[in-house]
TrEMBL record, chain A:
Keyword annotations from UniProtKB, A to Z: Periplasm, Signal, Transport
Function: Part of the ABC transporter complex GsiABCD involved in glutathione import. Binds glutathione.
Gene3D superfamilies in the cross-refs: Dipeptide-binding Protein, Domain 1 (3.90.76.10), Dipeptide-binding Protein, Domain 3 (3.10.105.10), Periplasmic binding protein-like II (3.40.190.10)
GO terms, biological process: dipeptide transport
InterPro entries reported for this sequence: Peptide/Ni-bd, SBP_5, SBP_5_dom
Record-level Gene Ontology MF annotations: peptide transmembrane transporter activity
Subcellular location: Periplasm
Domain Solute-binding protein family span(s) in chain numbering: 67-422
GO cellular component entries: ATP-binding cassette (ABC) transporter complex; outer membrane-bounded periplasmic space
Protein name per the record: Glutathione-binding protein GsiB
Signal peptide: 1-24
TrEMBL record, chain B:
Cellular location(s): Cell inner membrane; Cell membrane
This protein's UniProt keywords: Cell inner membrane, Cell membrane, Membrane, Transmembrane, Transmembrane helix, Transport
The keyword Cell inner membrane is annotated on this UniProt entry: yes
Protein name: Glutathione transport system permease protein GsiC
Record keyword Transferase present: no
Membrane topology recorded in Swiss-Prot or TrEMBL: Multi-pass membrane protein
Organism encoding this protein: Paracoccus salipaludis
ABC transmembrane type-1 domain location: 95-292
Top-level taxon: Bacteria
Length: 508, 306
C-alpha cells in the first residue's frame, strides 16, 4: 500500500467514523432479541409484532397510552349481541405498492387469516368470523358464528394488520420476507440482525420526520448502553434497571419509566391439594409482602397488583388488596386445617429474574410453614410440562410463577385465556385449573355483548369474583424502562413492551 | 498424496452420515414441542396445531428422518421453523461474518502467540519469559465478555475511535477479533514456548550453533520450523472451534454469527437449523483436519502419506 492510498483510506475511515452529522436523520433502535419474521399474521413475539407496526397497520390500533384508536377504519357499529360488526374504512389509503386499500382488501386479509388451511399462527384472532361481506368499496361487515364482544380489540392486535392483496398474490408464502403494508415506513431490508425501513412519502397521514429506521438486535445490555453513549443508537426499549443510574448521570441521555400491562402472579393448581381450598389460597396471598416483592425482584420498578388484570387494560377496576398480614395468614391456614403448613413446589422459567422472584416467595411462604421447592424450567421443558399436557389429570404443576400481557389491550384477553373454567392447557392458559361457575358466567356475559357499559359491568363482577377466589398469588405489575438520547422526541414504549416510533424526530 | 486425499475424503462420508443420524435423534429427544414454542406464549391449542401441521411436525418420526436425509443429500436443508426463511439463507447470512472473524482472530492469535512464545522460550527464565507467561495466563483467564465491554468502553465510548459492534468495515473487526484471538494467542504462546524449549535441546540446534549459524537464523529457521508441527495441530483445532461461532463475542459485539444462531435455534427447538449447523460444523472440522495433515507435509518434508 503506498503512502497516498494509505492517506486516502484513513481519510475515508475518518469520515465513516465521524459522529453522525450526516446520518442524523436515521433513527437506530437497539433491541435485545432477533426478529423472528415479517408476516404479522404469523409471528408471536412482541418485538417482531411491534416492529412490523412501522410497515403495517390494522383497522384499529393503539395510541401511546395503549388506548384503542381507529387506524385504517374510520368507525364501526355492531349489533347488541356482538355477532355483526360493520366497519367504515378510511378513504384514500394505498398500500406501498400502489394497491388501493378498500373493503375487498380487508376481506382478502381476514379470509386469509381465518382460513385454517393457511395454518397462520394468529388465526384465533379472527377464527370466530364466519363471513366477511363487502358492503361497498369502503364498508365491510363481519358476521360472527357466536357473540364476541372483544372483536374490535382483536382487530387492533398486530396479528390482524392489513397486507397488500397484490403483494400476497405476488409473494405467496414469501410474504414474511417482503412486507407491503400501509404504514409510515416502507420495507428496505431484513438481514441476520437488522431490519431497515424507509419513510413512506405517500403516507395517508403526515409523513414521518426521520428518513430511515434501523432496528438492530444487540443481545448484550452493556453494548446497547454503549451504543446510546456513542450515538450509534438513539432508542433502547426494555432497558435493564441496573443501568439506569449510568443513564441518569449522562446529560445526553434520558430514561423514562411507565407502567406496563404485564402482571406477575403465581398460579395455584386448584386440582391439587391443598390449593383446592380457598382459605389456603387467601392465606398464601396474605403471607407475601408485595411491596417487598417489587423491591427485591424488580428494583422497585413495579406496583403491587390490585386486580387480576393490570391497570392499563380496558375495563380494569381496582378491587382490593391482600394486605401483608402473617397473623391473618396463619389464622386462615388454621381454619383450613393446615396450621402445620405443607410442602409444595413452584415452577418458574430459568432466568435470573424469575428465579429471584420464586426464591423470594420461598422465603415469604416459609413464614407460614409452607415449604416451597423451587424448580427452574428451560423454555422448551416448560412448554412441554405445563402447556402441552393432554388432560387436566396429567398436570403435575402445583405452583407456577409467570407473567401475562394482554396484547389486545382488552380485559377479555387478560382474563378469559387464564381463568375461564374450560380454558385449561393445552387449549389455553388456565394453569390454575380454576373453575368457578359465577366467574365463567361473567366472562361469557362480557363476550356476549358489544355494549361497552355492559362489558364494563361484567368485567367488574369478574374481577371481584376472581380476586376473592384467589386462584393466584397476586404479585405486581412491572414498569417499563426505555432509554434514549436527548436529541430525539416522539419515541415511546407501549405498555405491552412494544414501542411506537412513527412520530420520531430529531430536535436539532 | 492425491490418493491419500481421495481416501480421506471418501472416509468422511460414513462420519457425516453418523453425524446426521446422531443430530436428528438428539434434537428430537430434546424435551419441548417446537410447534408450541414457535406458536408463541399466547397461542391457543388451535394455533399450535396449525403451526405443527405447517411445519410438518405431525408426521411420523421415521418419515421425517427419511425426508431429512433425502432433502439434505439434495442440498435442501429446509426452512427455519422460527423465521420461516430457508436454512441456507439463515446460515449463509451469518457464515461469512463468522469465517472472517475467525480468520482475523487467528491472525492475532498466531502473531501474538508465536511472538510471545518464541521470546519467552529464547529468554527462558529471564524477565521477558515471566512477562510473556504472565500475559499468556491473563489472556486465558480474562473473561472475554468483560474484556470486550472494557474495550468498547475505552475505544468506542471514551475515545470514539471504533464502532461498538456490528459487522461492516474493517474497524468493526478490530475489537471482536482481538478479544476472540487473545484467548487463543495465550494458549499458542504457552504451546510455542514448550515446543521451542524442547527443540533447543536437540542435536541439530546445537550443531547449527556450533557451525556458527547466526542466532536469529537458528531460532526462526531451524527451531521454529521443527516446532511448527504441534503448533499447526493446535491452530487447526482452535480454528475449528472458532468456526463454530462464539456466543459471548457475538453477543457483546452484536456480531451476526453462527454461534448465536445455534443458541437461538436450540432454545426455539428449530430442528432444521440445528441439524444443518451441526452438520456444517462437523464437515468443517473434517476438512480442517485434512488441511492440517497436508500442512504437516509442507512443514516437514520428511512426512509422507500413502
Amino acid at each position: 500500500m503506498t503512502l497516498k492510498s494509505l492517506m486516502i483510506s484513513s481519510a475515508l475511515s475518518a469520515m465513516l467514523l465521524a459522529p453522525g452529522a450526516v446520518l442524523a436523520r436515521d433513527l437506530t433502535v437497539a433491541i435485545q432479541n432477533n426478529l423472528t419474521g415479517l408476516d404479522p399474521t404469523n409471528v408471536n413475539d412482541t418485538l417482531s409484532q411491534t416492529s412490523l407496526r412501522l410497515v403495517y397497520q390494522g383497522l384499529f390500533g393503539f395510541d401511546k397510552d395503549m388506548k384503542l384508536i381507529p387506524l385504517l377504519a374510520e368507525s364501526y357499529e355492531s349489533n347488541k349481541e356482538a355477532t355483526e360488526f360493520t366497519i367504515k374504512l378510511r378513504s384514500g389509503v394505498t398500500f406501498h405498492d400502489g394497491t388501493p386499500f378498500n373493503a375487498e382488501a380487508v376481506k382478502i386479509n381476514i379470509d386469509r387469516l381465518r382460513n385454517p388451511d393457511n395454518n397462520l399462527s394468529r388465526r384465533s384472532l379472527v377464527s370466530m368470523v364466519n363471513e366477511v361481506q363487502v358492503v361497498d368499496d369502503l364498508t365491510v361487515k363481519l358476521l360472527l358464528d357466536a357473540p364476541f364482544g372483544a372483536m374490535i380489540a382483536s382487530l387492533a392486535h398486530p396479528g390482524a394488520m392489513m397486507i397488500s392483496p397484490a403483494a400476497l398474490e405476488k409473494h405467496g408464502s414469501e410474504i414474511g420476507r417482503n412486507p407491503v403494508g400501509t404504514g409510515a415506513f416502507t420495507f428496505t431490508r431484513w438481514s441476520a440482525d437488522t431490519l431497515e425501513v424507509a419513510r413512506n412519502d405517500n403516507y395517508w397521514k403526515e409523513p414521518a420526520k426521520v428518513d430511515n429506521i434501523i432496528i438492530r438486535s444487540v443481545p448484550e445490555s452493556g453494548a446497547r448502553m454503549a451504543m446510546l453513549q456513542t450515538g450509534e443508537a438513539q432508542f433502547v426499549p426494555n432497558f435493564p434497571p441496573e443501568l439506569m443510574k449510568v443513564v441518569e448521570a449522562n446529560p445526553n441521555l434520558k430514561v423514562e419509566t411507565s407502567p406496563s400491562i404485564v402482571e406477575w402472579y403465581v398460579a395455584l393448581n386448584n386440582n391439587k391439594e391443598p390449593f383446592g381450598n380457598k382459605l389456603v389460597r387467601q392465606a398464601l396471598n396474605h403471607a407475601v409482602d408485595k411491596d417487598a416483592f417489587c423491591q427485591v425482584v424488580f428494583s422497585g420498578l413495579c406496583t403491587p397488583a390490585d386486580s387480576i388484570i393490570p391497570k392499563g387494560l380496558a375495563f380494569h377496576v381496582p378491587v382490593g388488596e391482600y394486605e401483608f398480614d402473617l397473623d391473618r395468614a396463619r389464622e386462615l391456614m388454621a381454619e383450613a386445617g393446615y396450621e402445620d403448613g405443607f410442602s409444595t413446589e413452584v415452577w418458574a422459567n430459568s432466568n435470573t429474574e424469575s428465579l429471584r422472584a420464586v426464591q423470594f416467595l420461598q422465603q415469604q411462604l416459609a413464614q407460614i410453614n409452607v415449604d416451597v421447592n423451587v424448580v427452574p424450567l428451560e423454555a422448551g421443558v416448560a412448554a412441554q410440562r405445563i402447556w402441552s399436557i393432554e388432560s387436566p389429570e396429567d398436570a403435575e404443576v402445583q405452583m407456577y410463577y409467570g407473567g401475562w400481557s394482554s396484547s389486545t389491550g382488552d380485559a377479555d384477553w387478560g382474563i378469559r385465556p387464564l381463568l375461564l373454567g374450560e380454558n385449561v392447557p393445552p387449549s389455553m392458559f388456565n394453569v390454575a385449573y380454576y373453575a368457578d361457575k359465577e366467574l365463567d358466567a361473567a366472562i361469557n356475559g362480557a363476550i356476549g355483548t358489544a355494549d361497552p357499559s355492559e362489558r364494563a359491568a361484567f368485567y367488574e363482577t369478574a374481577q371481584k369474583l376472581a380476586w376473592e377466589g384467589a386462584p393466584w398469588i397476586f404479585l405486581g405489575v412491572t414498569d417499563l424502562i426505555a432509554a434514549q438520547t436527548s436529541d430525539v422526541t416522539g419515541v415511546h414504549m407501549l405498555a405491552d413492551r412494544g414501542f411506537l416510533l412513527e412520530d420520531a424526530a430529531f430536535t436539532e | 498424496m492425491l490418493s491419500f486425499l481421495i481416501k480421506r475424503l471418501l472416509g468422511t462420508i460414513p462420519v457425516v452420515l453418523m453425524v446426521m443420524i446422531a443430530v436428528f435423534a438428539f434434537v428430537h429427544l430434546l424435551p419441548g414441542d417446537p410447534a408450541r414454542l414457535v406458536a408463541g406464549p399466547e397461542a391457543t391449542a388451535q394455533d399450535v396445531a396449525a403451526v405443527r401441521t405447517a411445519l410438518g411436525l405431525d408426521r411420523p418420526l421415521p418419515q421425517q428422518f427419511l425426508t431429512y436425509v433425502g432433502n439434505t443429500l439434495q442440498g435442501d436443508f429446509g426452512t427455519s421453523l422460527r423465521t420461516r426463511r430457508p436454512v441456507v439463507d439463515e446460515i449463509g447470512m451469518r457464515l461469512m461474518p463468522t469465517v472472517w472473524l475467525t480468520l482475523f482472530a487467528m491472525v492475532w492469535a498466531v502473531a501474538l502467540g508465536l511472538l510471545i512464545g518464541v521470546v519467552s522460550a529464547v529468554r527462558r527464565g529471564r524477565w521477558q519469559d515471566y512477562g510473556g507467561m504472565i500475559l499468556a495466563v491473563s489472556g486465558i483467564s480474562f473473561p472475554p465478555f468483560w474484556l470486550g465491554l472494557l474495550l468498547i468502553n475505552l475505544f468506542s465510548v471514551r475515545l470514539g475511535w471504533l464502532p461498538t459492534g456490528g459487522y461492516g468495515t474493517w474497524q468493526h473487526f478490530l475489537m471482536p477479533s482481538f478479544t476472540l484471538g487473545l484467548g487463543v494467542a495465550a494458549v499458542m504462546a504457552r504451546f510455542t514456548r514448550s515446543a521451542f524449549i524442547e527443540i533447543a535441546r536437540e542435536d541439530y540446534v546445537r550443531t547449527a550453533r556450533a557451525k556458527g549459524v547466526p542466532e536469529r537464523r537458528v531460532i526462526w529457521r531451524h527451531s521454529l520450523r521443527n516446532a511448527l508441527i504441534p503448533i499447526i495441530t493446535m491452530v487447526g483445532l482452535q480454528f475449528g472451534f472458532l468456526l463454530g461461532g462464539s456466543i459471548v463475542i457475538e453477543a457483546v459485539f452484536a456480531w451476526p454469527g453462527v454461534g448465536r444462531l445455534l443458541v437461538d435455534s436450540v432454545s426455539y427447538r428449530d430442528y432444521p437449523v440445528i441439524q444443518a449447523l451441526v452438520l456444517m460444523f462437523s464437515i468443517q472440522f473434517i476438512l480442517i483436519n485434512l488441511l492440517v495433515d497436508v500442512l504437516y507435509v509442507l512443514a516437514n518434508p520428511e512426512i509422507r502419506y500413502q
